[in-house]
Amino acid sequence: MTRGRIRARLRRSHLYTFSCLRPSATEEGAHPIEGPGYSRIVYCNQPLMHKKKPLKYRSNYISTTKYNFLTFLPKALYEQFHRVANLYFLGAAIISLTPLSPFSAVSMIAPLAFVVGLSMAKEALEDWRRFMQDMKVNSRKVKVHQGEGIFDNRPWQKLQVGDVVKVEKDQFFPADLLLLSSSYEDGICYVETMNLDGETNLKVKRALEVTLPLDEDEAFKNFSGTIKCEDPNPSLYTFIGNLEYDRQVYPLDPSQILLRDSKLRNTAFIYGVVIFTGHDSKVMQNATKSPSKRSTIERKMDYIIYVLFSILLVISLISSIGFAVKTKFYMPDWWYLRPDDTTDYYNPKKPVISGVSHLVTALILYGYLIPISLYVSIEVVKVLQASFINQDIQMYDEETGNCAQARTSNLNEELGQVDTILSDKTGTLTCNQMDFLKCSIAGTPYGVRSSEVELAAAQQMANDLEDQAVERSSVSRQKGKQQEIELETVVTSKDEKDQKTPIKGFSFEDDRITEGNWLKEPNADVIMLFCRILAICHTAIPELNEETGSYTYEAESPDEGSFLVAAREFGFEFFKRTQSSVYIREKYSSSGQAIEREYKILNMLEFTSKRKRMTVIVRDEDGQILLLCKGADSIIFDRLSKNGRLYEPDTTKHLNEYGEAGLRTLALAYRKLEESEYSAWNTEFQKAKTSIGADRETMLEKAADMMERELILVGATAVEDKLQKGVPQCIDKLAQAGLKLWVLTGDKMETAINIGFACSLLRQGMKQICITGINSDAKEVIKENVMMQITNASQMIKLEKDPHAAFALIIDGKTLAYALEDDLKMQFLGLAVDCASVICCRVSPKQKALVTRLVKEGTGKTTLAIGDGANDVGMIQEADIGVGISGVEGMQAVMASDFSVAQFRFLERLLVVHGHWCYKRIAQMVCYFFYKNIAFGLTLFYFEAFTGFSGQSVYDDWYMILFNVVLTSLPVISLGVFEQDVSSEVCLQVRLILGWMGNGLYSSLIIFFLNIIIFYDQAFRAGGQTADMAALGTTMFTCIIWALNCQIALTMSHFTWIQHLLIWGSIATWYLFLLVYGMFSPTISGNAYKILVEALAPAPIYWTATLLVTVACNLPYLAHISFQRCFHPMDHHIIQEIKYYKKDVEDQRMWSRERSKARQKTKIGFTARVDAKIRQLRGRLQRKQPSSLDANSPMSPSS
């Protein structure tokens, strides 16, 4: 068992002060475990004890699916008949089995079964994909103790409470575990919790001292113990329990608990016992059930169908009343109907019964007003739209090999209606990499490369100066030479950047201090001290890459890693750490030889969010004790001595410039200590370190604060937080499209704010509203304080008069808990909506979901949540649309999502392109569906009125079936799949729907009455005979097919050969069907026997009527769109014409003007940040120009 432990012989706890060293567990006393919420008992290494109740707990199998094998049929049927139209047609199908039906049972049941079956099959397929991804996780392997000290691999899903598991480096924890021991002698292990709280810095966990000997497989042969602890709950940061072992009781706290889906890092292996499994684990407790999401259009369709159903009811009532009147007053005179020998349905003596029975018949007869094929057509269209999203090459990520995936097609059109995006930070906006870019040493700035913000601002300024061509430009060129050099450097450094091999974590470029040139600088001794602080003040572990021969660093944070890479590149390579020392190889020295130096670590005061600094006290080879410190500039500057402020003014200036450039900054300082001074302090510090009680943390803080004083400033660092590729640009485009972005992260506030600056959600000059809770035990006091902060902030925004002023709201998780309470949440939401950007820090997964729900329900607008880890599952499921980031560790977010993309930047194309197209297509498709069904369905009603409300259909049953299934469905599907325009203004507004319904009413009147007028008493055949009902019905149906397909051709603005094929092919199919159907025996074809060949085709009036009716139906719509395009064009009409006439190439000014119209002014994003930078630079120019003009004036004193 020595393998993997060579490097691990360090007692890692000696490196830590605040996070790791604690008094012995036995000294603290056991937790009182009793009462409700504390009933869980775990028998360690005895999983058989948990086979029976009450100790039988949930299995480790997890499921994120919506259905299972038992619930699929009832739940899926409920989903389908939750739709109003399907419910109506179910009733119609049942009635079709009775004599009251005007159609055969098959013609009513078959379309319903087809529609519902197809939709259910689609649901089953999508859920099956979720199931397969669940199985991928459940089938992961972990080593489990089988007995007799033997460990063997077992799938996660078969893990049981009480099992002892062995997890190795870079593996995920399969369940919530109690840490027993690790590869380090003192039971320390490093854990990455990115999937839980979004933080990339490693957490230190520690085992109880009593279980440290359990560090080999054989040690578990006779191991047993009992854990009594809290019941399953969603709190990630708390745990209360006791371990009974060797007749002693030891208290447990969160530092011994390893949570499912967190990852073991920098540790060869750990042993742990399973406490919570599957859906009892804390990460799954934070998850919510997969919701059934319906799009806005689908919900609106239900209301429109209610309207159509009301129309159906009205005309059915008219029809039934008409039939009752006819039966009572006219039936006795119609002797050929045998009124003396008839059923109750046609009995003149019982007109009420006849009317009621006819009402049922009419409801089925006019049922074609309700578009049964609408839902299935939309399902087909959405599946095809989803396949286009899946196959979009522009959303393919070459690095990971992942493409975008529409995991459900129900919400395609919702992508075009998103108002607010709620995003995770780590792994979503960032790629967890920092690049050392600039530094300030001894008041001198180093680093010539520029951030993206500087590049964009310089480019924009250059463009503006070219356009202005004012007289003052010559003066500014002469007198503002330094600024031009800065801009030139900014623009040209990009080319140089591409010439060198990139080094991960190091984008610095300045020949003055690289390659040992720092020795020639006037402050070489300060530069050397700066580099030594970078190389010594950290907690990282070096690892030799045997292939390259260079060292890589396992650091607790990406910042630390970038500092060590920078120190290495400057010639100060950290290459070894022992229990008490760090070793630095100094490549460049005055002697010209590389020198290895040892620094003994005396104390380490690590970084915490409260301290905002890290200090290490070391003894160098000469015996000198040095205190080396790095931290936030505000903290460090407050601790400088009078003699240590020599470089403060220049460093402050540089820090401000770095901040404006979107870089993360830290200040570096040091102090030399006398032996006696250090010894006296260390005595006090060790006393505080070993104390027991509530005051221990305060005593440690006080002792540390005493020493971290009288510092001497050395310089400052500026690192660029490596966002995922294209994130600032994507946020900028989304902001210009009018979308709002909230960042919800489990990371600490400082990190979140830095990321906000990096991705341009925050910028210099933006007013930050930080809402934090006060330290108090009284919850009411804290809540009142939070309420006061929110009220004051809202008032401040209302009183702001500067039009360029922008506000950012920043709130932490503890305060957010109060802000989300019922009596305060709407006030909080109001403040958040008024702010340009919102950042919520230290939030739990549950809080992410609650914030998402608040935004969704409070604003009433479409929300989208995007994340990559298990901690994002709650908000992904709660939002109207959930997007998971694939290609990063963990697939939980993807499994719970509706869409997945490989990187955040693809969100722009998903929303702005696919979202817009899908919404426009579906909206037009729905409008057209209602148009065609009204146009068709009302002709049945008109014929009824002409035939005494007899219930007779003018169309053959097969015509009715083919109308929705074949003859008009394929062209409308092509509209939904291929139509493209350039705008997003079309939506399901009432006015728009009524317009299409009015068009349908007009078309139905033209189709019926024009045909009646033409055929009523005109000769139809060569022999002079008039047309019968079959000829009239077939001619009317032909006119319907032509009119509706020509209408959809006029609606389309983008044609492909597929659309032409489906539109004109549908018309050709109708004639082909008539020909083939007419060839069947009259027992099958009925009155349609050879109707095309013998009756319709030879009759010129048939062709003339078809042409006349088609033109009359489409002429008003053609006139409307022609008038609109000529006199009141919409934005997309103009852009279509510009593209058609290639004006976007020939006339760039026109094209730029039209493009700018689509952009909304925004106070966040890259553009807003560049605008602010330009305003600042222009202000400087304006201040310089008057002074330069005065200096050159002939009236000046110097002359």
TrEMBL record:
<feature type="binding site">
    <location>
        <position position="842"/>
    </location>
    <ligand>
        <name>ATP</name>
    </ligand>
</feature>
<keyword id="KW-0460">Magnesium</keyword>
<feature type="binding site">
    <location>
        <position position="425"/>
    </location>
    <ligand>
        <name>ATP</name>
    </ligand>
</feature>
<dbReference type="InterPro" id="IPR023214">
    <property type="entry name" value="HAD_sf"/>
</dbReference>
<dbReference type="GO" id="GO:0016887">
    <property type="term" value="F:ATP hydrolysis activity"/>
</dbReference>
<feature type="binding site">
    <location>
        <position position="630"/>
    </location>
    <ligand>
        <name>ATP</name>
    </ligand>
</feature>
<keyword id="KW-1133">Transmembrane helix</keyword>
<keyword id="KW-0067">ATP-binding</keyword>
<feature type="binding site">
    <location>
        <position position="560"/>
    </location>
    <ligand>
        <name>ATP</name>
    </ligand>
</feature>
<feature type="transmembrane region" description="Helical">
    <location>
        <begin position="958"/>
        <end position="978"/>
    </location>
</feature>
<keyword id="KW-0472">Membrane</keyword>
<dbReference type="InterPro" id="IPR036412">
    <property type="entry name" value="HAD-like_sf"/>
</dbReference>
<comment type="similarity">
    <text>Belongs to the cation transport ATPase (P-type) (TC 3.A.3) family. Type IV subfamily.</text>
</comment>
<feature type="binding site">
    <location>
        <position position="746"/>
    </location>
    <ligand>
        <name>ATP</name>
    </ligand>
</feature>
<feature type="binding site">
    <location>
        <position position="745"/>
    </location>
    <ligand>
        <name>ATP</name>
    </ligand>
</feature>
<dbReference type="GO" id="GO:0005524">
    <property type="term" value="F:ATP binding"/>
</dbReference>
<dbReference type="InterPro" id="IPR018303">
    <property type="entry name" value="ATPase_P-typ_P_site"/>
</dbReference>
<dbReference type="InterPro" id="IPR006539">
    <property type="entry name" value="P-type_ATPase_IV"/>
</dbReference>
<dbReference type="GO" id="GO:0005886">
    <property type="term" value="C:plasma membrane"/>
</dbReference>
<feature type="transmembrane region" description="Helical">
    <location>
        <begin position="356"/>
        <end position="378"/>
    </location>
</feature>
<feature type="region of interest" description="Disordered">
    <location>
        <begin position="1180"/>
        <end position="1199"/>
    </location>
</feature>
<keyword id="KW-0812">Transmembrane</keyword>
<feature type="binding site">
    <location>
        <position position="426"/>
    </location>
    <ligand>
        <name>Mg(2+)</name>
    </ligand>
</feature>
<feature type="binding site">
    <location>
        <position position="871"/>
    </location>
    <ligand>
        <name>ATP</name>
    </ligand>
</feature>
<feature type="transmembrane region" description="Helical">
    <location>
        <begin position="1100"/>
        <end position="1119"/>
    </location>
</feature>
<protein>
    <recommendedName>
        <fullName>Phospholipid-transporting ATPase</fullName>
        <ecNumber>7.6.2.1</ecNumber>
    </recommendedName>
</protein>
<dbReference type="Pfam" id="PF16209">
    <property type="entry name" value="PhoLip_ATPase_N"/>
</dbReference>
<feature type="compositionally biased region" description="Polar residues">
    <location>
        <begin position="1184"/>
        <end position="1199"/>
    </location>
</feature>
<feature type="transmembrane region" description="Helical">
    <location>
        <begin position="303"/>
        <end position="325"/>
    </location>
</feature>
<dbReference type="InterPro" id="IPR032631">
    <property type="entry name" value="P-type_ATPase_N"/>
</dbReference>
<feature type="binding site">
    <location>
        <position position="848"/>
    </location>
    <ligand>
        <name>ATP</name>
    </ligand>
</feature>
<feature type="binding site">
    <location>
        <position position="872"/>
    </location>
    <ligand>
        <name>ATP</name>
    </ligand>
</feature>
<feature type="transmembrane region" description="Helical">
    <location>
        <begin position="1028"/>
        <end position="1049"/>
    </location>
</feature>
<feature type="transmembrane region" description="Helical">
    <location>
        <begin position="1061"/>
        <end position="1080"/>
    </location>
</feature>
<dbReference type="InterPro" id="IPR008250">
    <property type="entry name" value="ATPase_P-typ_transduc_dom_A_sf"/>
</dbReference>
<feature type="domain" description="P-type ATPase N-terminal">
    <location>
        <begin position="42"/>
        <end position="109"/>
    </location>
</feature>
<dbReference type="InterPro" id="IPR001757">
    <property type="entry name" value="P_typ_ATPase"/>
</dbReference>
<feature type="binding site">
    <location>
        <position position="424"/>
    </location>
    <ligand>
        <name>ATP</name>
    </ligand>
</feature>
<dbReference type="GO" id="GO:0045332">
    <property type="term" value="P:phospholipid translocation"/>
</dbReference>
<keyword id="KW-0547">Nucleotide-binding</keyword>
<dbReference type="InterPro" id="IPR023298">
    <property type="entry name" value="ATPase_P-typ_TM_dom_sf"/>
</dbReference>
<feature type="binding site">
    <location>
        <position position="868"/>
    </location>
    <ligand>
        <name>Mg(2+)</name>
    </ligand>
</feature>
